[in-house]
Amino acid sequence: MGVKSIERELRLKDRKTMQDVFIYACAQLVFALILLTARILVNPGYLYTGYSFLISGVVLGAVNSLLAVYLLKKHLRMEYMIAICVMNFIFFALAMSNVSYFRFIGLLYSLAIGIAVSVISYKKLTYKGSGTFGFVTTLIVYIAFSLIFLGVATLFTILYPSFGRVTYKLVDGSYQIVSADNVEVIETADTIFGKDVVRVAKDAFKNNDKTLTLKLSEKTKFIAFGALSGCKNIQTLQANFSTVDGYLGYYFGTEKLSEEELAKIEENLGTEYEYYMYQYEKIPESLTTVITVGDVRDNAMYGCQMLKTVAFLNTANIGDNAFGACEGLTSLQFGENTRTIGNAAFSYCTSLTTVYLNYGLTEIDDYAFSQSTSMTVLVLPETVTKCGVYLFYGCDSTLQIASYVNAATISSHVYNDGWSAYWNYVSSSAYCTVTYYSVVVTE
Question: Nearest-5° angle of CA 378, CA 381, CA 384?
Fold first, then answer.
């Protein structure tokens, strides 16, 4: 066989090598796109659903590795083959991760392995005279594959990012929560990629049957109707109740009444409070703790009798009747930021016994704790400058007020700042006892 025949045979062999590498790269692209498409079609939010997606990624990685062995075993040394197979598993497993950052790392592997195989092809696979062509061909194939898959996956990572088993969707320049895994503790992000998470979509947490503790960010102000429907064992909810739809029952799937229906209730019953009582029928009895972030709107949790504890985290204003008729409420934990308590905000909270109001509170409106008949002690901080009328109307006359606002200051406020002379009035013939304390400053 002549030299030219040998050169031609080697070139043919080299061409076959490049064809096998090209087929393998294309197959890897096809497998990766199938995997990505499957995730988008099955769940466009990249929802973490147990190990099903992870297993599918490993299976595709295994198939791809077998294809690599079949196509490249004649051209690569064993250590290179093992490296490719292992990296395939890592790549697909990371691409299936529920954490966006891990997925991104998995996708970057495609670019790295493309360059690595290109270098190998240049050094180990090609015959002198066609090495540059082989190197460039392989590099183009792998970079094209990498950019396509990386670009598509990054796009969906931005549109549907997942963090902490919660999936978000980019809508009109901000993110909304669209779904979450069925786990016991969920804490959502306040910002993603520099954009606020402002909404919770309908059914986002639907049918979570765990003993759920759900903590939503203060920036997440808009919670859709039924976002928590079917969360039958939820125990703790942290949420913002400041918006027009900030009613607890609405979040669990109780329809809001129209203005006409509300007017009819008021006409027939003399008050709309019966409606607010009604709207909490779908709230599970397991929900005993609410943590508020942001202001609390009027009537937000009126009649929510299953509540035991309410904590105010970064809450400046508590609206009128916000927790009225929460008959099971035993503990109020005021944060340092609370400034005003609205009209009848804690009226008919018949299980409250001791209330410590926070330093920094300035105003308590009319009837704030009226008919809370079990109250025995309330601590009034020195920062209060205004108290409405009949704060404790209907309470037992044995109620003790520990006031750090001295009597002279209260008298001054009564005449100048709207502090009612009947602020501690409990019945037609009695006032609750006020004991005055001075603030001791220690160095």
Answer: 110
Q: 254, exposed or middle or buried, with CB in 10 Å at 0-12, 13-18, 19+?
A: buried
CA 95 to chain centre: 23
First to last CA, the chain: 102
Judged on CB neighbours under 10 Å (0-12, 13-18, 19+), 102 is middle
For residue 4, how many other CB atoms are within 10 A of its CB? 8
Question: Per the confidence metrics, is the pTM higher than 0.85?
Answer: no
pLDDT in tens, 388-439: 999 999 999 899 999 999 988 888 888 777 799 999 999 878 899 999 988 6
In this structure, are strands 166-171 and 174-180 parallel, antiparallel, or unpaired?
A: antiparallel
Find the helix packing angle between 3-42 and 52-72, rounded to 10°.
170
Neighbours of 357 (CB within 10 A): 20
Question: What would the 3-class secondary structure string for 88-125 be?
Answer: HHHHHHHHCCCCHHHHHHHHHHHHHHHHHHHHHHHHHH
CATH of 177-436 given 3.40.190.10, 3.90.550.10, 1.10.8.10, 3.80.10.10: 3.80.10.10
d(CA 316, CA 296): 8
